[in-house]
Amino acid sequence: MSSSHLFDPEFAELADLGWTPALAEAFERVAVSDVRPGRIARVDHGRSTVLVPHPVRARNQLHLVTAGDWVALGPSQTGPDRFEVTAVLPRHSAFNRLQVGHTQAQAVAANLDVVLIAASLDRELNLRSLERYLVMGWESGATPVVVLTKADSRTKDAVDYAVGEARTVALDAEVVAVSAISGVGMAQLSGRFLRPGRTIGVVGPSGAGKSTLVNWFIGSFEMATGPVRSDGKGRHTTSHRQLLVLPGRGILLDTPGLRSLGLWLVSDGVDRAFADLAELATQCRFNDCGHTQEPGCRVLRAVSEGTISAARLDAWRKLAREASSVAARQGDLAEQRAQRQRWKALAREQRRQPRS
Ligand SMILES: Nc1nc2c(ncn2[C@@H]2O[C@H](COP(=O)(O)OP(=O)(O)OP(=O)(O)O)[C@@H](O)[C@H]2O)c(=O)[nH]1
Ligand SMILES: [Zn+2]
User: Fold this and answer.
1) What ranges do the domains of the chain cover?
2) Contact assessment for residue 76 and residue 59, using Cβ atoms and an 8 Å cutoff
3) Which of 27, 124, 246, 278 is least surrounded by CB atoms within 10 angstroms?
């Protein structure tokens, strides 16, 4: 397929799904005749619903695909109008879940640009929980934004105070307060973060108001353009539950996997989310300072001066430990697998030896 095809009217609507020149280039590299690009809306039982931009069903073959992935789809040998995934295009971001007993992380959502971290103002703000979500957000490669929901449940002063508190852990991530009931902050939120072709996801604990946020985005879109059609036809389409395309407005990725993400792989996400502490740690007297009782520890000084809370230091230590144990576990499993491979190769080798 030549690249001119990609800008045919047929492909123009892919832009609504987040198709970019960079993806077109990646696609060209894997494209053989008869394949077309598409974005995965949902995955179940070895098959996917793929938007091309209308939805088609495809076999995943052996590709480990997830909602949000861009793939190349080829015709299946099993019949006309049947498709199979022939390649997965490189992800620019991904939320990965660590699977027990597996060396490979399982992606639960791919190619998000922005991830909204919902936290409800109708209960006490849990900064430690926010920190974890921020680690996860940075780790994914998407840009995290803290959204304090249900602002109507508190006084203006209390909301302002909570925003200030959240900012102490959000650092570079933006913090906004909204209410789906009063509408406070909602237009600003969608105006600021929804963009044509941009993919947004929502994470946060149960009851934080994730569905309400998603529904509000859809509702305000429908008010402006008419209902989002779910029959898969026409321009205002594709309410495929997991990948909601609002043409000219943005894309919402709302998958159960993303919602229930618990264990995840952490590495530099911790450093990003705790950039304040990581920076202070570079000023400790000892390079390998554990920030527990070492002389000349800059981090402990910040805690004693009250610029960093002891709870935040504690959270940082825990998450850093978690990150290194995940890394070690991955290393162990990779080593076990390599060993199994070596044994298999050896066994094959031995079978090939003539019996004496
Ligand atoms: N007062 C008020 N209540 C809200 C607001 N947004 C959501 N709620 C309520 O909070 C509850 C939880 O909202 P959901 O949107 O279902 O929360 P969720 O994060 O999707 O929850 P799970 O599906 O359990 O993960 C519901 O009863 C909503 O009506 C808001 O802005 N103000
Ligand atoms: Zn130190």
Assistant:
1) 3-88, 97-259, 274-349
2) yes
3) 124
Q: Which residue has the tokens 């299946």?
A: 76
Q: Is domain 3-88 in CATH 2.40.50.140, yes or no?
A: yes
CATH of 97-259, one of 3.40.50.300, 3.40.50.2300, 3.20.20.70, 3.90.650.10: 3.40.50.300
Ligand sitting nearest the alpha carbon of 256: 1
* Residue 158 CA neighbour count, 13 Å, CB half: 13
Q: What is the pLDDT along the chain (356 residues), one digit of tens a residue?
A: 333 333 444 455 888 899 999 999 999 998 888 899 999 999 988 899 999 988 899 999 988 899 999 999 999 888 777 899 999 999 999 988 766 566 667 788 999 999 999 999 999 999 988 998 998 899 899 999 999 999 999 999 999 999 999 999 999 999 999 999 999 999 999 999 999 999 999 999 888 999 899 999 988 888 777 665 544 443 333 344 588 888 888 999 988 777 766 545 556 788 889 999 999 999 999 988 989 899 999 999 999 999 999 999 999 988 888 777 766 666 655 655 566 566 656 556 656 665 44
Atom of ligand 1 nearest to the CA of 212: 15
| Ligand 1 interacting residues, C-beta cut-off 6 A | 118, 149-150, 152-153, 179-181, 204, 206-212, 259
Helix/strand number for the chain, H first, E second: 11, 13
Sign of the CA dihedral running 140, 146, 152, 158: positive
Closest approach atom of ligand 1 to CA 214: 15
CA distance 61 to 83: 10
Testing ligand 1's pocket by substitution, the residue of 117, 133, 206, 212 carrying the most ligand atoms inside 8 A of its CB is 212
Whether ipTM > 0.90 holds is yes
Q: Which of 163, 245, 143, 154 is nearest to 203 (CA)?
A: 143
Q: Whose CA is nearest to atom 6 of ligand 1?
A: 209
Ligand 1: nearest atom to the Cα of 208? 19
Ligand 2 centroid vs 267 CA: distance in angstroms? Answer: 20
Distance 346 CA to ligand 1 centre (A): 57
